[in-house]
Amino acid sequence: MTPKTAQGISASLRRIIEEAIVAQGGWISFERFMALALYTPGLGYYANDGVIFSQLPAGARAGTSASGGDFVTAPEMSPLFGRTLARQVAQALQVTQTDEVWEFGAGSGALALQLLDTLQALGVPVRRYTIVDLSGTLRARQQLTLAKHGELVRWVSELPAMMRGVVLGNEVLDAMPVKLLARVAGHWHERGVVLAADQSGFTWQDQPTELRPPLEIEGAHDYLTEIHPQAEAFVCTLADKLQVGAAFLIDYGFPEAEYYHPQRHMGTVMCHRAHRSDSDPLQDVGLKDITAHINFTGIALAAQDAGLNVLGYCNQARFLTNCGLLDLLGTAGLVDRVHAQRLIMEHEMGELFKVIGLCQGEAWHAMGFAQGDRTHKL
Q1: Measured between alpha carbons, how far is 162 from 357 in angstroms, rounded to an integer?
Q2: Nearest-angstrom CA–CA distance, 177 and 116
Q3: How far, in Å, CA of 317 to CA of 349, rounded?
Q4: 276: Cβ–Cβ under 8 A, 6 or more apart, which residues?
Q5: How far apart are CA 149 and CA 57, in angstroms?
Q6: Other C-beta atoms within 10 Å of 315: how many?
Q7: Whole-angstrom Cα distance, residue 11 to residue 172?
Q8: Residue 70: which residues within 8 A CB-CB, separation 6 or more?
Q9: Residue 283, Cβ neighbours under 10 Å: how many?
Q10: Cβ(201)–Cβ(282) under 8 Å?
Q11: Phi then psi for 249, rounded to 5 degrees?
């Protein structure tokens, strides 16, 4: 995307958001703002032609910068991520006696390619791999990446009435719009977006609300946080449609007690652009990602209330280790080992990223949670 094109996209999206604010009487929730900024057709961050996902060059040396894009996800960081996850997928397919994989938000298609290649090498039958993605630009990129598996892969933008198989979501929940709650001078408000007085852009405005975080926040200090109705609704929808199977959701976040800790008073909403982070989602709309960490306790409770069982919950390092990453590292080349270690190092992705496993029907012993399961901390 050229600078001129980027400016045009942002300006067009800004006008649409301005019109939405006016139509709603001058104020929209941050949840609505985030949805427009990320998903407005043709203009939102995940719906325009910008290059989102970076990839480390083949054979790159340690310390090499990723090429293009705004951030690197685990499958782009190392092919060993997908090869390791494939072992858990293989077990889940066998236990649930299904032969279909569903991936939400497949990004560049790298994870799908790694999974399909590995499952094929393991002799695990997969009848169909379904990608659920709203972005036409990303779909085109995925089709190129997955060309050799073309007959197995299909794309849908809406879920069918019934699903069977193993569901995957890597960094999907964090991109679902959140509501912002602000405790100011002891009173709770929902933080929303209005037009700036000088018409130069957007600014914040709070409105009194009956909404509350799921835990009472100790202390009287001002406090900003998020609640996740859309992510929890997604899990409920998944439970409703998944007749037989399991789901593995991977993202950055915390259990409830950590998420709503009194010291976490600035919330977790962050923006990502060109491998830099900032905390101002109201600027450069459509040109940068907007995310929030996940309250995994809320996800687990929503899943259970909707009829799913929790298979396990642990950090990414433990999950990948349980699934055999160390064995793969032992036969990998030096460069691959260096990149893959970032997946499990505590100060990289190993601790911040968590994995939760869900299933329809009676829970079973999923290999990814064999050791280090933290379900009791949810």
Answers
A1: 20
A2: 30
A3: 8
A4: none
A5: 23
A6: 19
A7: 26
A8: 51, 52, 53, 54, 272, 273, 274, 275, 288, 289
A9: 13
A10: yes
A11: -115, 125
Place of tokens 């982070």: 277
Length of the chain, please? 378
Give the integer Cα–Cα distance in Å for 59 and 346. Answer: 24
Structural tokens at position 47? 């719906």
Is pLDDT above 70 for 70? no
- Interhelix angle for 229-241 vs 296-305, to 10°? 40
Please tell me the distance from the alpha carbon of residue 23 to that of residue 28, in angstroms, as a whole number.
Answer: 9
Q: Does 260 or 68 have the greater pLDDT score? A: 260
Residue the block writes with tokens 């009435």? 161
How many Å apart are CA 187 and CA 206, to the nearest integer? 11
Minimal CA–CA distance to 367: which of 246, 219, 244? Answer: 246
Tokens of 158: 């809406």
What is the pTM assigned to this prediction? 0.94
Nearest CA to 223 out of 270, 256, 192, 260 is that of 260
pLDDT beyond 80 at 166: yes
What are 132's two structure tokens?
């659920």
Bridge pairing between strands 128-132 and 100-104: parallel
Pair of tokens at residue 131: 């990608």
